[in-house]
Structures are given as C-alpha cells and as structure tokens.
What does this fold into?
Amino acid sequence: MTTVSPITPATLFSVTTGSGEPIYRQLVAQVRRLVAGGHLAAGDELPSVRETAQVLAVNPMTVSKAYSQLEAAGVLERRRGVGMVVAAQHTRAQTRTERSELLRPTLERAATEATQLEIEAATALTLFEKILKGR
It folds into this structure.
C-alpha cells in the first residue's frame, strides 16, 4: 500500500524573511510553480491560512493575501468546508516553456546577485549545476 504524505506548510513553502520580495509574493510564486510542475494537482487542498502562518511564523493576513491573489488568478478556488484547493482547470502540468518562464524571475535575481558579487558566468553556472544535481 502506498501512503501519500500530507500537504503541510513545511513541505510546501519556504520563505526568506530578509528578501526584498514580500512574503506574500514568495508564497504566490511557490504555489504557481508547484501547480505548473504538477506537484499540486486539481483538487489538492492547501493548508489553512492559520496553519501556514503558524508554521512559517508570518502574519495570517500575509498568507490570506497570497491565497486571495491566487484565487483571483484562477489558480486556487475556495470550497466551503474545505478551504483552498487547486482549481479544476489545473489538471496537468504546464508545458516546459511555461514552466521555464516561471523560473525566469528567480534566475534574473540570481544573475543580478552574481554580477554584484563579481562572479563569472561560468562559475555561477557550475554552482547552479551542482545545486541541481544535489537535489
């Protein structure tokens, strides 16, 4: 028998409090990537606002704002008695091109940081490859 591990805030989200990007945007981007990559499928329940806020040690309004934006964008839908679930139209992962575009902002930030640190492109790419292979 296969057991499915529960979806918890700790397994879904990782926030960087010192980042220049607001936490709610970090959460929105992470949910979009998880849905696009097929890690979250249509009908999957997300952890409650309260639970997510407690685990991440953030204000519940921050989580609520992220969930609301995802609902407005059609990524999530609210179900009475259940909470937020991945919207029905998200039945499969997006194309490789669409997923790549979701990665672009992160890579642009990394490129900016590498430039600021005066790290050569080849060195940054080698480090990125090591990180990818280590997962």
The two ends are 26 Å apart (CA to CA). Residues 9-86 form a domain with the Arc Repressor Mutant, subunit A fold (CATH 1.10.10.10).
